[in-house]
């Protein structure tokens, strides 16, 4: 499996983070991940595999999520501690605005 690139959180501009969170499907993904780590297959998002893969990639490149390889799967988590340190209160505001899924 290829190496998974994650940007340094200090290099992520707020505009890139907000752009990544501006899509309803990506907001749904972040809402699901707020409950805990999971693989894409466990997210139960109404999107094709390729669309889901694209949305996850956008979130990863924007610094919102972290993925680690586990066998043939990638386990995805929110980079909560890093995001809270860099952009205090932003993630909680986004999650509270979208409500539970």
Task: Furnish the topology, listing elements before pairings.
Elements: H1 14-20, H2 24-33, H3 49-61, E1 65-70, E2 73-78, H4 80-86, H5 90-98
Antiparallel strand pairs: 1-2
Describe this structure in words.
The protein is α+β, with helices and mostly antiparallel strands and 101 residues long. It has one domain (9-98): Arc Repressor Mutant, subunit A (Orthogonal Bundle), CATH 1.10.10. The chain is built from 5 helices and 2 strands; from the N terminus they run αααββαα. It has helices at residues 14-20, 24-33, 49-61, 80-86, 90-98; strands at 65-70, 73-78. The protein has a two-stranded antiparallel sheet with strand order 1-2. A hairpin with a 2-residue loop joins β1 and β2. The longest helix is centred in the middle third of the chain and has 13 residues, at 49-61. The chain is globular, with a radius of gyration of 13 Å. The model has no long low-confidence stretch (mean pLDDT 91).
């Amino acid at each position: 499996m290829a190496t998974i690139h994650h940007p340094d959180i200090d290099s992520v501009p707020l505009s890139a983070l907000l752009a990544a969170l501006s899509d309803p499907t990506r907001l749904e993904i972040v809402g699901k991940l707020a409950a805990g780590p999971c693989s894409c297959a466990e997210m139960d998002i109404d999107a094709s595999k390729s669309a889901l893969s694209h949305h996850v990639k956008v979130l990863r490149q924007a610094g919102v999520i972290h993925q680690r390889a586990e066998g043939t799967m990638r386990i995805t988590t929110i980079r909560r501690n890093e995001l809270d340190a860099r952009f205090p209160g932003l993630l909680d505001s986004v999650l509270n605005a979208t409500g539970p899924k």
